[in-house]
Amino acid sequence: MSYIPVKQIAGLSVVPSHRTSVTKWLSRNGISSTMLPCNGGNAEHVLLTDPPEDVRRAYLLKHIDGLDLEPGTYDDKAHAAFLAVSKDRRARAERKAEVARFLLALPKGTKWPDRLRLVHAKFGVEGHSKPCLKALLTGLKGVDPINFALALLDGYVNARPRTDIHCKAWSLFLTLIRDAAPEWPLVAAWRDVRDIAPKMGWGAAPSYATFWRRWNELPEAQRLQARLGTGEARKRLTQPIMRDKTSISPLEWVSLDGRTKDFWVDAGDGRAVRWRRISFWVGTWWPARTPATPCA
């Protein structure tokens, strides 16, 4: 969890400046606080995700400014979506964002042993190995520091909301796949959509990567239906129906799993034959095979 001292939000946005008034303001707004060790004593802290959005925004700008980082452009739409996710997910994302901002604020040329020592001293060792921290920074390339927490949530790639695809462009993409052979590459369908969309007034089609991600987000059943048709998709996805074997009578031909198999094979003499097999009761089940039936 990412806790911040209450004194650091005093005077920000609608928060009163006086220490006692801040505590009363927190109580009125239903924001809980806790006492945590700080500078040799205990100080009142709150979770960064608990204050209202305008207070949280003001704190982030103040905090980033203190780190000598350029905050970047505040993504209002994305931050609104950020507030809609669960409190636990927001807290984890804020914690990672704080670590990332701390790393970026270190002087240029700081060696990794020194970075690790500083991070471990401030945030602890768990989850902060060198590979984890490198992956964290790599995933935030091109992201403004004030939007770091957004980029660390699932479904939010490179701190940019999902690119929209025009509904008619997406419908054309699926239609092209349906009408083509099952092996037809997705990139070929995308190229056709890319060329047609501007002429139809649908705007420029997004990149192939955007189409590819949306295609893979579809359920398997829908992808099979688009590729192979409804009948073949249903056949491949239908689970065999296991039936009760206790009611089988002698010499009764049944399909135990709901499917019938028909095999024609080469018997070795050049004839195509269909093998048949029946079972009969003689104290125990014994298989017997009828002679091969030549192909007419």
Helix and strand topology:
Layout (H helix, E strand, L loop, with lengths): L2 E3 L13 H10 L5 E5 L2 E7 L5 H14 L9 H9 L2 H19 L6 H12 L6 H10 L8 H4 L15 H13 L6 H11 L11 H10 L2 H9 L1 H8 L26 E3 L5 E3 L2 E5 L3 E5 L3 E2 L2
Antiparallel strand pairs: 1-3, 2-3, 4-5, 5-8, 6-7
Description:
There is one protein chain. Helices cover 44% and strands 11% of the residues. It is built from twelve helices and eight strands. Helix 8 crosses helix 9 and helix 8 packs across helix 11 (220-228). The longest helix is centred in the first third of the chain and has 19 residues, at 87-105. Mean pLDDT is 76; it is low at 292-296.
Which descriptor suits the 3D outline?
elongated
* Continuous helix count: 12
Rounded Rg: 32 Å
Query: H/E order of the elements?
Result: EHEEHHHHHHHHHHHEEEEE
Biggest sheet strand line-up: 1-3-2
How many runs of DSSP E, i.e. beta strands? 8
The structural domain count equals 4
Task: Characterize the largest beta sheet: strand count, sense, and whether it forms a barrel.
Answer: 3 strands, antiparallel
Show unreliable segments.
292-296
> What class do helices, strands and sheet pairing give?
alpha+beta
Q: Kindly state the mean pLDDT as a whole number?
A: 76
In angstroms, what separates the terminal alpha carbons?
Answer: 77 Å
Strand fraction: 5-15%
What percentage of residues falls in helices of 4 or more residues?
40-55%
